[in-house]
Amino acid sequence: MDDDLLFDLIEQAYDSAIDGQWNDLLDRISPAFGGSKVFLSATREPDQGQHMICITHGLEDLLQGYMRQIHLDPCFQVVMQRPDEALCMSDRIKPRLEASPVYRWYREMEADHAIGRVYPVKELSALFAMNRTARQRQYNAGEQAGFSVLSSHVGGAVRTARALADQVHQRLCQWQADKVNNDAALAIVRADGSPVFMSRAMEALLESDGPLRWYRGCLKLKDPWHDLILARAHLLAVNTRVTRRFGSSIPVGERRMQVIPLSASVYENASLWLIS
């Protein structure tokens, strides 16, 4: 890989930790590795919540299905035993993979060659990986070396984003100490729809068959009409001075979501989403 491009990607990774533009980063990484399908995720223990999911090539739905069964993936089990080390899929593990329940996701994503790295991040396991089809070759030594360097910095950026989320949560609690329920499903969401912070209850909603979904690293409602209402309410809240506690209220299944203007002392150009 070209050194200048690698440096640019590393710099963009740390920018993404602040601005949340992870999918733009992955879109640039993909052609640098032969058009690979690239994804980045951060999750808790199985069925305990999703903190972040980003992927190229419009494969969010397939990745969601895979992430629900990732703990059954022999490849993931191997990289979990060697955290912070970039590993390529070996021919030796393919028979185990083909016999596992997750193989269907590999087939649907046409993931015949893969390389990945796991990072332990406060209360989370983050995974940065890429794959490509049998029509392409396995990742060569140069690509593996480039991925090793890049993935090391992506891990640093993910940890930076996690630290930022903790700081923003503390500011939120100070701003509305008597109103914020840490057990509620809430998120602080940037203007573009990418979350800065999510409570564990909100993360759990994203892993279940709830009303929310991931799209290019941003939060959306599955119902198109309500998602349009949410987008308008969010834009209004982001551009509104904080003059009152309650913002717009939107139905989400049998519950309601409030989209609340947020003080700049908590986070600029963002709003608070609260499901009750």
Number of strands: 12
Helix and strand run: HHEEHHEHHEEHEEHEEHEEE
Strand content: 25-35%
Low-confidence stretches: none
- Shape from CA axes? globular
Structural class: alpha+beta
Distance between the termini: 49 Å
Describe the strand arrangement of the main beta sheet, using strand numbers: 2-1-5-4-3
Number of helical stretches of at least 4 residues:
9
Helix content: 40-55%
Mean residue pLDDT: 86
Largest sheet: 5 strands, antiparallel
Overall radius of gyration: 19 Å
What does this protein look like?
The protein is an alpha+beta fold. The chain has helices at 3-19, 22-32, 60-68, 74-81, 94-98, 103-109, 141-175, 200-207, 224-238, and strands spanning 37-43, 50-55, 87-88, 113-121, 124-132, 185-190, 195-198, 212-215, 218-221, 248-252, 255-261, 270-275. The termini are far apart.
